[in-house]
Amino acid sequence: xxxxxxxxxxxxxxxxxxxxxxxxxxxxxxxxxxxxxxxxxxxxxxxxxxxxxxxxxxxxxxxxxxxxxxxxxxxxxxxxxxxxxxxxxxxxxxxxxxxxxxxxxxx
Length: 107
Known about the structure:
Elements: H1 11-22, H2 28-36, H3 40-52, H4 65-77, H5 80-88, H6 93-100
């Protein structure tokens, strides 16, 4: 948007002033200037709020394939408790457990 006057008013500011004058507001220019003024507290609050509600970056699951194969071997032997201990000891137990399904029943 191009500035029209030295004080930085734009065509939209003039339109806003005209509308406020037609609605009967006193000091329409002062209201437009107040609206154009920077709001550092509002900006800081908005920034803080977006940072607080930002989703955490998703990490790439690190599947321990050796542990998945060992857990699958334990399941194939019928030792489910050992398989659970092996999977829970990894960095990504859920991903490793799902990976173990690939090896269950495979000898």
